[in-house]
Design goal:
The structure is a homodimer. Chain A is α+β, with helices and mostly antiparallel strands. The first copy, chain A, is built from 8 helices and 5 strands; from the N terminus they run ααβααβαβαβααβ.
Chain lengths: ~210, ~210
């Protein structure tokens, strides 16, 4: 890779945002295909390829998923205590407005031992998360926004998506055109939480002590 | 992003490999910094930033980690049954040969409810995996190989890295110059397992039936 390719890559990476505001519109089939292929090109432990992508094209199903998420948003607010009102003012998803909605589900355990004897479910999940990050970055390279919605009861979502026993929904991905990308993570811009300096998360030969802020 | 940037991004993405063969050498400090910053620019649920990166600069510690991994490789082989001999012939890590070794650890639960009421540990782990995928792609853009080693007992690794209670090691990342990048995933090239077609992992409005191979 030459310096230009490297710089282009970093431009995409640092401009990726978790988007909740969408501008409607459509995603061209060849663009959606490239994004799905980016997900499918992710690494997986023991080459399991445990990700399953479900495109939601049925409006009624989309609305049922939106209801499931709204219910979970209310449960979350109830647990938030004094931050509950602030939380409810934040926009946390764009399920009904985004051009495409894609559920990502972990396939049932296929018995792979390679690289996951000690951490079986963790490694399946990690592979699926890598696939999602690939899709997220690909979406940004395509000038599309993506948001990962994790506000849902996984069992209820599994039922809505006719998942087999052992399959586990991990994400609802909102994807589509946006008016603008946030300049920084929305939770940082809204003052919900601060960014840590890199030094805080970095240790040498031992867990970082967290005093280096 | 223009078409050139997009194409550059996809070149990096599709050329990324899980590397186990390294050519020694060094990683320049500014390159390592860019890769770590790529990890730290990952998305995280509730903006938790739960990843901790530990650079292993101590040779003795590196050797202890290599021993831990070798022990787990033997345990894995014992579980492999008839594929045990084939498995033992595969190179699964380059811990002692790679230029840089970085452990990634999940921070102890900080009590975040935002986006993780129903799947707390899963969402922490997913955020850390996204950070690792970012570093993996960044390494490829820098013409460096990276390999994610998951052959270890997480509790024993936590002890070696002086992790606080509740912190959980997720990966040992081997990073550094390589002679060549594999043309396809090593487990595909070696005939260990086949790549699924995208159609196999893709469903519409319901979990894919797996009959579309």
């Amino acid at each position: 890779m030459d310096a230009e390719t490297r710089n282009a890559f970093y431009r995409v990476l640092h401009a990726r945002r978790d988007m909740r505001h969408f501008a409607g519109g459509k995603v061209a089939p060849e663009v959606l295909q490239r994004i799905l292929e980016a997900g499918h090109a992710a690494p997986s432990v023991g080459f399991m390829q445990p990700w399953r992508f479900i495109r939601i094209s049925d409006r009624k199903l989309r609305e049922e998923l939106a209801e499931l998420v709204e219910k979970e948003r209310q449960y979350t607010a109830e647990r938030m205590g004094e931050r509950s009102a602030d939380f409810l003012r934040l926009k946390v998803e764009g399920i009904l407005e985004c051009a495409e909605l894609i559920a990502v589900v972990m396939a049932p355990d296929d018995g792979t031992i390679f690289g996951r004897r000690t951490m079986p479910e963790e490694m399946t999940l990690a592979s699926c998360a890598c696939a999602i990050e690939n899709m997220w970055l690909a979406a940004r390279a395509e000038n599309l926004g993506m948001g990962w919605v994790s506000f849902f009861d996984p069992q209820q979502m599994a039922a809505l998506l006719c998942c087999p026993p052992g399959a586990k929904p991990l994400a609802l991905l909102c994807l589509g055109p946006v008016s603008d990308f946030y300049k920084a993570p929305m939770l940082e811009l809204s003052g919900w939480r601060k960014r840590r300096p890199l030094s805080f998360v970095l240790g040498e030969n031992r867990y970082p002590d967290g005093n280096k802020q």
